[in-house]
Amino acid sequence: MEIIKTNIEDVLIIKPEILMDSRGYFFESFVQRDFEQKVCKTVFVQENESKSSYGVLRGLHYQLPPFAQAKLVRVIKGRVLDVAVDIRKNSPAFGKYAAVELTAENHLQLFIPRGFAHGFAVLSAEAIFQYKCDNYYSPQNEGAIIWNDETINIDWKILEHDIILSEKDKKHPALANAKIL
């Protein structure tokens, strides 16, 4: 696997080695040993999957300590814009974001360390999104930031009138008012 740095330290794009032949393709989507050598030492304890249609935007979500989560995310079907926002108060990148297009064709993955809010927008007709977490989900410790916070200014690559949000995601506070790490 190849590690590609983003504009924020520790948020990394992981490009697997794809083996192709007349039958199709094969790749190792995760190997603990290689991940620890090239990214960081962690143990993933939960894996989640979602299916969404064009325009669905999920985010920007995070878990507060002691349930903060690092995530390794990828797309199984379709295309998404995946975003990680630095919410570490003492970070030089506080309030900045890294974004990458993840597709079923490019097989890229994004590693999002603890201390980041995460979200994605579906750019294809349908997308199946999968992610590993290094800590268990705790509803009592969830936090979120509104998707269109003007101080973060994320270009979601979708027209605003096409964005589909859950009722919950419509009501999150701006970064300045959010409970953060």
Give structural notes.
- The longest helix is centred in the N-terminal third of the chain and has 7 residues, at 32-38.
- The mean pLDDT is 96.
- This protein is mainly beta and 181 residues long.
- It is built from 1 helix and 13 strands.
- It is globular, with a radius of gyration of 16 Å.
Describe, in short, the structure shown.
The chain has one domain: Jelly Rolls. Helix content is 4%, strand content 40%. It has a six-stranded antiparallel β-sheet with strand order 1-2-10-7-12-5, with no helix packed on it.
List the helices and strands and how they pair.
Blueprint: E1 2-5, E2 12-15, E3 19-21, E4 24-26, H1 32-38, E5 46-53, E6 57-63, E7 71-77, E8 79-86, E9 97-103, E10 109-112, E11 116-122, E12 126-133, E13 142-144
What is the CATH superfamily label? Jelly Rolls
Q: What is the helix content?
A: under 10%
Secondary-structure element string: EEEEHEEEEEEEEE
Indicate the proportion of strand residues.
Answer: 35-45%
| Secondary structure: number of strands | 13
